[in-house]
Amino acid sequence: MCPECGVICANRKCEKRLQSDKKCKKEERDRKKKPQITDIEFLFNDKPGDDIVKKLNAFYYPTGPHNKDKGIEEWKCSYYDDEDNDCETKNYGKDVEGDSKIMPFVDFFELWVTHLLQDSIEWRKEISKCLNNNSLTKCSNRCNRYCRFFKKWVEQKKKEWTQIKNHFEKQEGLPKNQHFTILETLLEEEFFDQIKEAYGDVKSIEKIKVLLSKRRIKKDDELQNKEDIIEKLLEHELEDYEKCKETHNDDRCSQDTQGGRSGGTHDHEDDSDDEEPPTPLVDNACSGDPSGGSSIHRSIVNRVAHHFREVAHNKMKENIKSNSVKGSKHNVLEADATKGIYKSSGNSVPLTDICTINENHSNRNPKNSSGPCQGKDQGRFKIGKDWTNVNEKQKTTYKDVHTKMSLCHKEENICSSDCNNINNSFLGDVLLAANFEAKKIKELYTKDNGLNDLKDKETVCRAMKYSFADIGDIIRGRDMWDLNDGSQKIEKNLKDIFDKIKDNLPDGIKDNRQYNGDPNHIKLREDWWEANRKQIWHAMQCALKSGNEIQCNNHTPIEDYIPQRLRWMSEWAEWYCKEQSMLYNKLVADCGDCMKKGEGGKECMNGSGECRKCKQACEEYKAKIKKWQEQWDKMQLKYLYFYHEAKTTSRHGIDAYSGAVEPKDKPVVKFLQELLPPNSDKSG
C-alpha cells in the first residue's frame, strides 16, 4: 500500500516520507474559499513478487461490492489554491489498516503515473506471452483469463486518469489556455523513457513524440484532438487486448479443450492444462497441427492486416476533417440503411433493423433480377470442384506472368447482381447482398458437404470472412476478377453512385484533394468501406442467427485488409487440404487389407485382390492430387515473382519498379514487404 505519510518523488523515483516530516500531519489552514474537490479511485498494489494478476487478485475477484474489497483506495483531492492542493485517503484497501495519509497533488500525480507505468510494463510481459506466434495458434484458458483481467485493469486506469486530469485542470496558477500543453510536457519530460518501455512499440512511440512536439506550440483551444500520451498508451493496451481475444476467448477455449474447463475459472486454479504441449513434427501440411505452419502464418498475416486497417482508418478520419463540421462526432461517410428508400415492389418498404432485411429492401428491377443471388454458381462450395484459371478466359489485361493465377468460382459468382441498380440507398443494397451471400454460403456448404462437426462450421465462418473481404474489394475498386460483363457493369454503377455520394458531401470534405482528380473515386470508396464495414459484417452475421447452429466471431474480420491474391491462395490451400484429407482417408481404407499383410504390406502379393485394389486407389489419389499440383505450380511461380519484387523494392518503395508491378498487384507486394523478416533486405 501507499506509505502512511505518502512519498517524496524525485528523478522518477519515489521514497517513503518519514513520520517526522511536517507534511505527515495535516495542517489546519485559514481557508477563505471553498475547495474544488475531485474524488479519485486508485487501484493500488505494491506487493513484492508474484505476477500482476496475483497482485490484483482482489480487484478481479472482490469479496464484496465495496472499493475496499476490490483493493481500490478512495482518494479526495482538494484544491484551494496552488499552495494548498492536497490529496488524502482514509481507505487503504482490502486487509490493510492505518490512519489517513495525505500528500500534495503533485506528489500524488507522480505516484499515480509511476505506478501506472510499472503495472503496464508488468502487464506487457504477461500479455506478450499470449501474443507470440505459438500462443496464437490455440486458445489458452490462462490467456483468456489474463486478457479479460487486462481489459478490466485498462478500463479502471482510464477512469482514474480522467479523474486526475479533471483535477489538474482546476489549477488556476497555470497559464491560461496552456493546461494541456503543460500536462503533455510534464509527462514527456519526466516519464517518456518509462512510457516508451510500457508502450513496447518503439516506432509508434517516436511518432507520438513528433506529434507532441507539433502540438506543444499550439494553445489548448487550437487543438482538435486533446488525447494525451497516457490516453494513447491505454488505447494501445486495448489494441493488444483485441488481438489477444481473437484467439483466447470463451468460445475458442471451449472448442479447443473439447468440453474442458472454460475461460471462466478463478486465478487460483491450476493453470497447468492451459500450457501448450510441444507440437510434434508432422509431414502433412494439411494435418491441422500448428506445426504445419498454417495457423502461425495466419496469425502473422493478421497482424500485418491489422496494421493496414489502422492506417486506413486514420486516413479516413483525416480525409473527412472539415471546418464545416467542426465539433461534430458524426462520420459523414457512415450510412444509415434504415433511412434508405426501397421500392423494388413498387411501394417504399421501410427497414427498421439490419437483421430483418429481405429482397423487398432493394431497388432491383424485378424484370431483370429475381433476387440478390440470381444466376450465381450453386456449386461453388462443393469440395473437389476445380478452380478456374484466368488463362482459360479469352480476355485479360494482365501480362503473361500475371495471368497464371488460379481463381475460385466463388469470386466469379458473388451475390452482387442487385448492385446493378445502385442508388442513394447504396448501403441497403450492399447489406442485402452481404446478407444473402452469407445465407447462400451456409445453404450451399450444408447441401454439398453436410454440416456435422465443428470444423465444418468453422469453414462456413471462414468462407463468410472471405466473401466479406471480396465485397470490400468490389466496393473499393480492388477486385481482380473484373473480366466478365457483370463485374464491369458493377464497376460502372459504383462510379456513378460515388459521383452522387461525393456531390452530397459537405464542401470542406468534398473539396479534399484526396477525393478529386480520380473519376473512379478510389480514395472515397476506400474511406466509405472503412466507415461502413462493421454494418456489412453485421448483416452477414444476421444470416446465421436462424437455428443458432453456427457461431462466428462477433468482431469485424480483418480479411478485407489482406490483398485478394493472398486470400485466394489461403482459400485454395484450405480447399486443397479438405479434398486431400478425403482422398487420403479413402486411400488408407482401400489399402487397409494389403497393408495388414506383413510389416507394412511386405507380404501383400502382386496381382492379389488386395494389391489390385490398393494399386488402383494409389493411382486415383496420384491423378487427383496432380491436378492440384499443377495449380500450385502456377501460383508458386506467381508468388515467387511477387516475393522477389517485395525484396527488391523494399529500400526504395513500391513505385521503384513501377513498370514491373501492375497497379492492382502493388498491394500484394506492399503486404509482403511487411511480412519480410527484420534481417532481410527490407529497410522499413
UniProtKB/TrEMBL annotation:
Region (Disordered): 244-296, 358-378
Occurrences of domain Duffy-binding-like (ranges): 108-251
Pfam families, per database record: Duffy_binding (PF05424), PFEMP (PF03011)
GO cellular component term, pick one: membrane
Matching InterPro entries: DBL (IPR004258), Duffy-ag-bd_sf (IPR042202), Duffy-antigen-binding (IPR008602)
Ranges that cross the membrane: none
Domain Duffy-antigen binding: 406-567
GO function terms (MF aspect): host cell surface receptor binding
Coiled-coil regions listed in the entry: 611-638
Ranges annotated as biased composition (Basic and acidic residues): 244-254
Biased composition (Polar residues): 358-372
Keywords assigned: Coiled coil
Name of the protein in question: Uncharacterized protein
Organism of origin: Plasmodium falciparum Tanzania
